[in-house]
Amino acid sequence: MSFKRCPKCGDVKGLAEFHKAKANPDGRAYYCKTCANASTKAARDKSPELRAAIRGHRFTPDGWAAAVLCHMRQSAKRRGHPPPVWATPTAFRAYVETFHGDAFRALWTAWAEAGFATELRPSMDRLDDDRSYTADNLRLVTWKANRDKWSKSTTNRELAREKMRLLHAKRD
User: Fold this and answer.
1) Angle at the Cα of 91 (from 124 to 122), degrees rounded to 5?
2) What's the rounded Cα separation, in Å, for the pair 47 and 57?
3) pTM for the whole thing?
4) 59 with 76: CB under 8 angstroms?
5) 30 and 54 in contact (C-beta within 8 Å)?
6) If 0-12 CB within 10 Å is exposed, 13-18 middle and 19+ buried, where does residue 117 land?
7) Going by C-beta distance under 8 Å and a sequence separation of 6 or more, which residues neighbour residue 114?
8) What is the pLDDT of residue 110?
9) pLDDT (tens digit, 9 = 90+) per residue, 19-35?
10) Cα dist. 21→4, 25, 31 in Å?
11) Are 35 and 5 a contacting pair, CB within 8 Å?
């Protein structure tokens, strides 16, 4: 049996005491299961403010812009649309500030005051789902409003059902 030292607690343990991690050279996680589980529990137990600080970049306007732009790129690629017209998160944030400034600040404030609740997160909605992400095809809404629009769309429901059917077919 092979052994490994956990850098967090310093104990030498058998490989079975480490979670599997294919990306690592030995196929095991860096930290032992005990330390990894304790870290995960500690992170879950922290207050929303501390979690926001830990994941802070997503809870700043620049971090939000980077995350939304990344999602736009992935969505455009998946749909076969051209990529968004903004090359950088900074350029996208400048667009949001210029064309949606007051509305964005109001949504941002409401989101922050609600402890960064997912439903209130600012989101960019395409007015025409058959077109890509362009300045004239976007409106600023909450994540919940965008999700509700998506779930009401017959095409999206059909796509989701087909995706689930394919996933279940792969399992069988």
Assistant:
1) 25
2) 17
3) 0.57
4) no
5) no
6) middle
7) 120
8) 94
9) 999 888 889 999 999 99
10) 14, 9, 11
11) no
Give the max Cα distance, the chain.
62
Task: Calculate the CA dihedral of residues 122, 82, 159, 121 and round it to 10 degrees.
Answer: -10
- Percent of residues in the chain assigned helix, strand, coil, to nearest 5: 60, 15, 25
Question: Quick one: pLDDT band at residue 56, thresholds 50, 70, 90?
Answer: low
Q: Which two tokens stand for residue 52?
A: 């926001």
Is the Cβ–Cβ distance between 99 and 148 less than 8 Å? no
At 3, is the secondary structure helix, strand, or coil? strand
- Torsion from C-alpha of 110, 58, 65, 112, nearest 10 degrees: 10
